[in-house]
Amino acid sequence: MEHILNKNAMEILLKGDFLGFDDNQSKEDLISQITQSSITKIVIDASELKKWDSSLLALIFEISKLAHQKGIIIEYKQFPQNLKKLTELAFLVNRKPDTTAKEELSIFESLGEIGISIFQTSLKGLSFIRQTSLSIGRFFTGSAIMRRIDFMFALEDCSYKAVGIVSLVSFMVGLILAFVGAIQLKAFGAQIYVASLVAIGMTRIMGAIMVGIIMAGRTGASYAATIGTMQVNEEIDALKTMGISTQDFLVLPRILALTITIPMLTILSDFMGILGGAAVGIGILDISAPEYINYTYKALDMNNFMVGLFHALIYGIIISLCGCYYGMNCGRNADSVGKSTTLAVVSSIVWMIVATGIITLLFEVLGI
Amino acid sequence: MKTPHPQIEVRNLSIAYGDFVLLKNLNFTVNRGDIFIIMGGSGCGKSSLLRVLTGLTPISGGQVIIDGTNFGNATTETKNKIMRRCGILYQSGALFSSMTLAENIALPLQQYTNYSPQLIKELVELKLALVGLAGFEDFYPSEISGGMKKRAGLARALALDPEIVYFDEPSAGLDPISSKLLDDLIIDINQSLGTTIVVVTHELASIFNIGTNSIFLDGNSKSITGSGNPNELLKNPPNEQIYNFLTRGTK
């Protein structure tokens, strides 16, 4: 490439092959000469150009952009037809994105923005809870628009279809609880109390927590993904414009189904956990079966059992609310569905832990 | 000549997302019985305008008046009442994937009428037949083609005999023959039922084939830069951009 600078014009001669043209030094020289000079015209002569690729086009594009900015007339001399067309194509759409730079915020302003964002998100969440409560109210007064079949599908999905995984995980948790308890209790020759430990542990909290975690990963994620996909497919828009309450139609059947089934799954989990404990107690710790059953029976307490079920009920509400909330607030692309699903599971588990802390503290104060 | 009767009046409408103003100072009127085209290049705000007209996005300024009622500032109840007189065909059809076509179309009928199950069944069959899908009642959306989904979506949009039907890019993703069939269907609905039709599109064939009135949205000036019958706009384009758009920049 050669260039000749006259008083008012510059001539750039493209000679030979321009394949993978990456000579930054000559590019920079050329650009700086154009920038600093007061020329009114640039002629790019391609009469001796042989082979070329996009690297040449990029160079011409850079020169042309600069020429446009400075109001320099540009002439493309003896350009091959395809190169000329591509050059024109690059300038065809002259729409610029809005690049108005946002003012850089100070640390206090940034903190303020974060605070406002948290406040707005909280308001959104509270509004969702309010709308859901109203929807539940409408359900009890018989005015909710809910299809029975949707409720039955949701019920099916979070009831017997979850039995296998809940049973397996709870059995293993009972097993682990018994093993861990036995290490310490054996030292005092009190391994028989493994039965009590497993029975109390499973019925009071562990059963409910395990079911909660399983259902958050299984059903909560499924709610967020299903509703999120409906958002992407404009199905939620269609419901809204039909004037049908999305809360009644989509959220209510799911909340009801999970809130009804989760305590039942917790009872199953309690039983399977105790069974897992028994497998260790009877099979490995050499406790006789009647003795183990007797100690388990003695440790079982209606109070603990009801506390476990109460936890489960709260977890059911939390999981279904989180799943539906993130589904309803999903963006409009596939990526957002993934994000909503993750957020639904993570926030369900976080809120479950928070709720457990509050309930435990409350029951401690109340002496339950 | 019939006196035009305004059905949708848009006055000084602005649409913004946070600080970003998408469209401003929009003024236009859709008359009863019009096939009104909202056209413009990609990203100029056509679909956003449709979302505002259907109450899915709040307006940032100005008014949207439907049959004399200020729709933009109306309560949810009033909006729902107005929207029950409107049907919408979304770009994807937006059929509920867990329901059969019959259940999809029956949903608004079950919700807003006291019709007997038998009458609803008959109406569903009729609406499906009207869009050329007779016999597809028990099919799920996943079992039919894209063009059929759109027609089924139109059958659902027509379920409650709406006064206004909105179409969001009806030709998108359709082959030319399906697209032409859908255009013909839109004209049939408009002429036989007197339904006002609002179509968001940039398909030139559809624009000239069906449009009786139109506006052109310009993404750069964020406003309407031309309006009128599309064929008239082609004959007397108000600016070069509209001329280029309507001729695909080829003439």
Strand content of chain B: 25-35%
Report the radius of gyration of chain A as a whole number of Å. 35 Å
Q: For the terminal residues of chain B, how far apart are their CA atoms?
A: 34 Å
Q: In CATH's first tier, which class of the largest domain in chain B applies?
A: Alpha Beta
Structural class, judged by helices and strands of chain B? alpha/beta
How much of the sequence lies in strands of chain A comes to 5-15%
Order of helices and strands of chain B: EEEHEEHEHHHEHEHEEHH
The coarse overall form of chain A would be elongated
Mean pLDDT of chain B: 88
Taking the sheet with the most strands of chain A, its summary is: 4 strands, mixed
| Share in helix of chain B | 25-40%
Largest interface, Cβ cutoff 8 Å: A-B, 16 and 27 residues
Helix and strand run of chain A: EEHEHEHHHHHHHHHH
Short structural summary:
Chain A is an alpha/beta fold.
Overview features:
heterodimer, A: 368 residues, alpha/beta, Transcription Regulator spoIIAA, 2 domains, 4-stranded mixed sheet, 12 helices, 4 strands, 72% helix, elongated, B: 251 residues, Rossmann fold, 6-stranded mixed sheet, 9 helices
Folded structure, characterized:
Chain A has 368 residues and is an alpha/beta fold. Chain A contains 12 helices and 4 strands. Chain A has helices at residues 24-36, 54-70, 81-90, 107-141, 148-157, 163-187, 194-232, 235-241, 246-283, 289-299, 302-328, 334-366; strands spanning 2-5, 9-18, 41-52, 73-77. In chain A, strand 2 (9-18), helix 1 and strand 3 (41-52) form a beta-alpha-beta unit. In chain A, helix 7 (194-232) runs antiparallel to helix 12 (334-366). By secondary structure, chain B is of the alpha/beta class. In chain B, helix 3 crosses helix 4 (117-130), helix 3 (101-112) runs parallel beside helix 5 (146-157) and helix 6 (176-193) packs parallel to helix 7. Chain A binds chain B through residues 95, 98, 145, 150, 153, 230, 233-235, 237-238, 240-244, and chain B through 20, 51, 54-56, 79-81, 83-84, 86, 88, 90-92, 94-98, 107-108, 111-112, 156, 219-220.
